[in-house]
Design brief:
Number of strands: 24
Helix content: 25-40%
Strand content: 15-25%
Shape: globular
Length: 524
């Protein structure tokens, strides 16, 4: 018997409806849960969030809302074991890969709970000092940041049902903005369960958190002028959202995270077997296999000196050959499945597309699976492709295969490596591995122009570096161009999306009264 994933809107759990979408175990094909179609009373549910949820949240100080996030975290920690079971069944992830999602969510919530505490009892944020508008200083201008007068709608991707919710919801709720989450249906079970647990625990005001599990029909139509919208998914869907009549008419503030052909560069001075070489190979394999390569930050293009192309290919292939793939319930399995057979077909077709111009260096397509039927399971073993001359590639710089797939590309010199990295036309992250800090330091500002994050790794930080693909809440997450042009997290910077900047002009005494419950937004 499948579980029905109820919507929570208008402060209540909506009744079960006819099952329209089935969520399946991507390894066994078993039906696990069901969602309905279009949510009932969307407009009324959104209005309740804007009115009741927002009013209750914005009646609190930042410090009080930070304490509220701490209570949310306690609820999630109390149900952690059940979340792991859901992730394994619905996402096909191993215990370690489920932790990337679930523990990542908890870490981010805890981070913003602590960060919010530093804002104390303030209810407004100051942006800089007052500026004199009159020669004698009798008339001044003070920029403030005030929480938006709407709700935050999140339309999320399938790969992070836990972290994808809370990395957005934590700064939104801390800002005093109610959240409506629409998770990707295929893995919505974990998101829905977390939302249900938090709402039923009563740690948030009614209307502060809502969820729509089934169809996205009508969501954008229900938005109003002061709402904000954050989307994670494909560039094609992002384009549809940007052009939606309601989004355009109301000038809805958007944050988009879309496709990203992330790169990683091995510096010129590396030698086979050197510490930087070994760190690079290890990181590439980890990025290809963590969550079966279904991370928006995964390394899709691995750039190495042309003279090291064969050595890197051999070292990576040797490690990939040791990765067992199959049913995550088997303790011997290191890498589980993709989230669905649909995704399986997409990845297989993507590999075939890239193989039209690149050589397959390590072919995982015919790997024997552990405790899984290849005719049913959505399992694809890691596949490495390659081109000794990165200039000979076109598709690899344009087409993202969202799975355990990466392409090795040779470069001639530093300028060529940077040029190849920029051909991604905007990415979430690039990493540079090398032993010469001056080489890395010279590359970093040049790479920053087309990447949201530049991750530099020298051997001395090999054990402490946080990983190419791991998104840390203290750093911004987002990227220009193809990556969507969005930006979130980054400590207190993450609150800016949920606030409106306004210049308040008046006498010094009037400004002092206006800002008596404000605190300076400090980013240092």
């Amino acid at each position: 018997m499948t579980i029905f994933l109820h919507n929570y809107l208008g402060g209540v759990r909506q009744d079960a409806a006819d099952a329209v979408h089935l969520l399946r175990d991507p390894v066994t094909g078993e039906a696990l849960a069901a969602t309905g179609g279009r949510a009932e009373e969307l407009e009324q549910g959104f209005a309740f969030a804007r009115d009741s949820g927002r009013a209750a949240l914005q009646a609190m100080s930042y410090g009080q809302r930070a304490a509220m996030l701490g209570e949310v975290l306690k609820v999630l920690q109390a149900n952690r074991d059940e979340y792991y079971a859901i992730a394994q069944a619905n996402s096909g992830t191993t215990q370690a890969d489920s932790a990337v999602d679930i523990e990542g969510a908890a870490f981010t919530l805890n981070y913003y709970a602590k960060l919010g505490t530093s804002l104390g009892e303030a209810r407004l944020l100051l942006d800089g000092a007052a500026a004199a508008l009159a020669r004698d200083g009798s008339f001044q201008s003070q920029h403030i940041l005030a929480p938006v007068r709407g709700l935050a709608l999140f339309i999320n991707a399938f790969n992070f049902p836990a972290w994808g919710l809370w990395e957005k919801a934590a700064p939104a709720l801390l800002s005093g903005v109610p959240v409506v989450i629409k998770p990707a249906t295929v893995t919505a079970w974990l998101t829905q369960r977390m939302v249900a647990d938090v709402i039923e625990a009563g740690v948030l005001p009614p209307g502060a958190l809502s969820i729509v599990c089934g169809s996205s029909s009508g969501l954008l139509d229900a938005l109003e002028a002061f709402d904000v919208l954050s989307f994670t998914g494909s560039a094609d869907t992002a384009a549809l959202i940007r052009s939606h009549a309601g989004v355009v008419r109301h000038s809805i503030r958007l944050n988009i995270e879309a496709d990203s052909l992330n790169s990683s560069i091995l510096a010129e001075s590396a030698q086979p077997g050197s510490p930087a070489f070994e760190l690079y190979v290890k990181e590439l394999v980890r990025e290809m296999t963590t969550k079966s390569g279904q991370r928006c930050t995964a390394i899709r293009r691995a750039l190495v000196p042309a003279r090291l192309f064969d050595a890197v290919a051999e070292a990576v292939g040797a490690r990939l050959a040791q990765v067992s793939v199959g049913n995550p319930r088997n303790p011997e399995v290191r890498m589980g499945s993709l989230v669905s057979r649909e995704q399986f077909d997409s990845v297989r077709n993507g590999i075939a597309t890239l193989a039209g111009e690149a050589r397959v260096l390590h072919d995982g397509r015919n790997r024997v699976l552990v405790d899984a039927d290849p005719a049913v399971a959505a399992c694809v073993a890691p596949t490495l492709l390659g081109l000794p001359d990165g200039d000979a590639a076109r598709l690899v710089h344009e087409h993202e295969v969202f799975g355990p797939v990466s392409t090795l590309l040779g470069y001639r010199d530093a300028a060529h490596a940077l040029a190849l990295s920029h051909r991604g036309l905007g990415s979430l992250v690039t990493s540079v591995f090398g032993e010469d800090e001056s080489w890395l330091a010279a590359a970093a500002p040049l790479l920053a122009a087309s990447h949201g994050r530049v991750h530099l790794v020298t051997p001395d930080v090999g054990k402490t570096q946080t990983g190419h693909g791991n998104v840390m809440p203290a750093s911004i997450h987002g990227g220009p161009g193809r990556a969507g042009g969005g930006e979130e997290l980054g400590g207190l910077r993450g609150l800016a999306f949920y606030h409106r900047r306004s210049a308040v002009q008046g006498s010094p005494s009037a400004l002092a009264l206006t800002t008596r419950e404000a605190v300076q937004l400090r980013l240092d």
